[in-house]
Amino acid sequence: MLKCLSSITVFLQKERKVKKPKILVITDVGRDVDDVLALSILEALQNAGMLEVVGVVTTHMIPEIRGRISRLITQMFGRKIALGSGSTYPLGREGEQELLHQYLEEHKIRNHSYEGIGLEKFSQHTFAVFRKSHEVILNAIAEHENIYIMVLAPMTDLAKAVLHNTQIFKSDNLSGVFIQGNAKVEDGKLIPDPVAYNIAEDIWAAEIVFEKLSGIIPFTFLGKWAAYSAPLKEEDFQRFADTDHPVGRYLQTTARNGLKCFALRLPKVYSNLYAGGKDVDPRDPIKDATHLSNPYDPSTILALTHPELFILEKEGIHTLIGMSKEESGVVNPETLHATIIEQIISGLTAASRRLKQEKDRKYG
Ligand SMILES: [Ca+2]
Fold it and tell me: Is the pLDDT of residue 255 over 80?
């Protein structure tokens, strides 16, 4: 009897494994270009039938603006996806207006926010209604088998979802959590490493997620050192723009805007990360840039669909990639770079073709 039950379990597990992965994305799209790069890769993979994106939820400081950006991008890809807009402030810092004020001050070029600017039909003043991010997360787990959560942003709203209903995270539906960020092992225990932006911005949220979920769900971490090994250059963004898809053109605009603002905000870090350590002209920082983006978020997506590109370090049920300068976690940086470019161009080209067909149908 026992043997029979265990073979049924194995059979059920196998059945579940062949189900197409469903993806829920947690994003702070707007600030950096790499969230849009990740959404473009997901579009390519979805188009190829490898996965299905079932939800995109936003978080951090200007979640509704990020929601509007996500809505436009998914619409331009011709997809109807559940969207959510979440928290402005990190956990425990609700209502600290000074924090939001500082964020808004630090994310401006010539006194105007650049987030979303350059995206067709985008206005920072449109009224928009969204469901709450943590509710969309909980619903997605309840409704979809073989679901993966992709955390490409601070963990505030994931922590809220966990605190709201820890039980649902034990569901067989949830197959894994992929995190763009770093973790370290101390006394045999996995803990969040604030060396990563997404972790540092809301360390309390990260601690809650680690404490409540790390014993029950496999985490995969894509650390910054992996992303540093495959920088995206000006000519790569030119190729995205050349696909003639509006998101391709937005990628180019926002990569430049994001870097200009970064150079003003943190000139020293900018110089080290994007200009080989040399002095940068603050009036034209792009001139000195060696590249336009480190593909943190797109690499996190590929860690699920193309694990062969990475060196997977196991820590119990968890997987760590690129946790130190010495170990980038990337098998071959050129192959990772080529895969990112190829996927993005394939996603944008297919979406561009669909947009054109739709226009022809409407007006032709
Ligand atoms: Ca992000």
Answer: yes
What CATH number was assigned to the domain covering residues 22-230+295-353? 3.90.245.10
Least confident of 107-111, 170-174, 294-298, 315-319: 107-111
The 10s digit of each residue's pLDDT in 77-91 is: 999 999 999 999 999
Q: Could you tell me the distance, in angstroms and rounded to a whole number, from the CA of residue 35 to the centre of ligand 1?
A: 5
Residues that place a CB less than 5 A from ion ligand 1: 28, 35, 152-153, 297
How far does residue 172's CA lie from ligand 1's centre (Å)? 27
From ligand 1's centre to the CA of 58, what distance in Å?
Answer: 10
Give the number of other Cβ atoms within 10 Å of residue 308's Cβ.
Answer: 10
How far does the centroid of ligand 1 lie from the alpha carbon of residue 16, in Å? 29
Query: SS3 letters for 18-56?
Result: HCCCEEEEEECCCCCCHHHHHHHHHHHHHHCCCCEEEEE
Tokens 């928290």 identify what position?
A: 87
Alpha-carbon distance of 29 to 153, in angstroms, equals 8
Going from N- to C-terminal start, the domains of the chain cover 22-230+295-353, 234-288
Helix, strand or coil, per DSSP, at residue 162: helix
Cite the DSSP H helix spans in 222-332: 224-228, 234-242, 246-265, 267-274, 296-305
Amino acid at residue number 300 = T
